[in-house]
């Protein structure tokens, strides 16, 4: 019988989520024969109290800056050079803030195994030349010439690291890779559902951070839970519409996976985008100032993603079709006062749509386009 070598895994990134996922992947690697024990983790080097973060991680088995209080398995090895970390890997798990992905791909180009596969945990978009947006997984595939699946879900990193039960979604078109990726990630407290609707999974993961900013504005303005629920619902409808318009062929069922409605809810209550957006309304400080003050090196995704989405909507003359996303972008960039937020969504197309046609068809699942 042919004996295949165990698959080597590299985690490209070591922030809050990168470290939490390293804890899972490291312990799964020790338990599963078809995964190599040694898991490399690319760490963007920084000094912590005069000592290199990579040295601290390799000696204390803890990322004291981005995931303090949680031990990483000792087989997770921190490596400061991304090429060294990734060159022998069969599976590359990308988990860095999206603004760094292009530079990182240029560094890795031609230096990884041509047979490697990727899994992106990165939430966000990048600008495409010519006015659109690029999905991060598409950037990885195009630049590195390897297939890239995605993992998104209601997964606040600290709670996952605490081993509190949650679910996640892997979007993977290639049926051969889905089970392998699930084996690397799944534990008894972190349950994985694999779907083939890759793009919708990824778009959900990026767009929900915009909605979370809206939820933070609602909190900052002292509006109630009903208002927040309205913002979440309108946000969800804009997410569905966005996929329908720009990524046709997506499935409505994907929005009911962890990457859809569940991630939206958790981010609108617990995430950093909500927290900073609330402070933005209350303090009047800039988003950048608050990111520096409140997040200890972690990066915000929502305002960035809102800007990229707006760039595309503006180019296509579609800002008014997505009033929630548009208002959030304008507030984040100081073009609109937070107090004007609700006025922008009072006459949302969702409310104007309540004509007899929609009423009669009842938006039945059978009639739904996605
Ligand atoms: N934290 C969560 O709860 C969570 C959950 C799901 C998904 N995500 C997503 O995972 C991705 C990574 O987020 P995170 O929470 O692990 O990171 P983070 O925001 O906690 O940390 C920022 C990371 O970026 C690194 N960095 C800074 N400058 C860099 C540079 N020039 N080049 C490369 N790296 C640099 C830092 O060293 C640090 O590791 C994001 O797309 C995020 O949306 C996060």
Describe the protein:
The chain is of the alpha/beta class. It folds into 2 domains: 190 residues, Rossmann fold (3-Layer(aba) Sandwich), CATH 3.40.50; 152 residues, N-(1-d-carboxylethyl)-l-norvaline Dehydrogenase, domain 2 (Orthogonal Bundle), CATH 1.10.1040. Helix content is 48%, strand content 14%. It is built from 17 helices and 12 strands. The strands form 3 sheets. It has an 8-stranded mixed beta sheet, sandwiched between helices. Helix 8 packs parallel to helix 10, helix 10 packs parallel to helix 11 and helix 13 crosses helix 14. The chain is globular. The chain starts with 6 loop residues before the first strand and ends in a 9-residue tail after the last helix. The mean pLDDT is 94. Nicotinamide-adenine-dinucleotide binds next to helix 1. The site of nicotinamide-adenine-dinucleotide has 24 residues, from helix 1.
């Amino acid at each position: 019988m042919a004996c295949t070598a165990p698959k080597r895994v590299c985690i490209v990134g070591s922030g809050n989520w990168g470290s939490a996922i390293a804890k899972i992947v490291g312990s799964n690697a020790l338990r599963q024969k078809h995964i190599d024990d040694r898991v490399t983790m690319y760490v963007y080097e920084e000094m912590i109290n005069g000592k290199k973060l990579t040295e601290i991680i390799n000696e204390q088995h803890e990322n004291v800056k981005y995931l303090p209080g949680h031990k990483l398995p000792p087989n997770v090895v921190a490596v400061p050079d991304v090429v060294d970390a990734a060159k022998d890997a069969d599976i590359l798990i990308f988990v860095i803030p999206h603004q760094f992905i292009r530079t990182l791909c240029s560094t890795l180009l031609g230096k990884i195994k041509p047979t490697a596969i990727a899994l992106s945990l990165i939430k966000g978009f990048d600008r495409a030349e010519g006015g659109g947006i690029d999905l991060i997984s598409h950037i990885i595939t195009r630049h590195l010439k390897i297939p890239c699946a995605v993992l998104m879900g209601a997964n606040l990193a600290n709670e996952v690291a605490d081993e509190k039960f949650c679910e996640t979604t892997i979007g993977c078109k290639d049926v051969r890779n889905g089970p392998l990726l699930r084996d690397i990630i799944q534990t008894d407290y972190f349950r994985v559902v694999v779907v083939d609707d890759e793009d919708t999974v990824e778009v959900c993961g990026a767009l929900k951070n915009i909605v979370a900013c809206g939820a933070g504005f609602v909190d900052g303005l002292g509006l109630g839970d009903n208002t927040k629920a309205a913002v979440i619902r309108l946000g969800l409808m804009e997410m569905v519409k966005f996929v329908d318009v720009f990524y046709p062929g997506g499935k409505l069922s994907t929005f009911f996976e962890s990457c859809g409605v569940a991630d939206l809810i958790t981010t609108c209550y617990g995430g950093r985008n909500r927290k900073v957006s609330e402070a933005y309304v209350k303090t009047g400080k800039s988003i950048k100032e608050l990111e520096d003050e409140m997040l200890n090196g972690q990066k915000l995704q929502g305002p960035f993603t809102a800007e990229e989405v707006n760039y595309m909507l503006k180019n296509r003359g579609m800002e008014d079709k997505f009033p929630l996303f548009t208002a959030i972008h304008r507030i984040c960039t100081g073009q609109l006062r937070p107090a004007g937020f609700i006025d922008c969504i009072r006459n949302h197309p969702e409310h104007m749509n309540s004509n007899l046609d929609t009423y009669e068809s009842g938006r039945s699942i059978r009639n739904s386009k996605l």
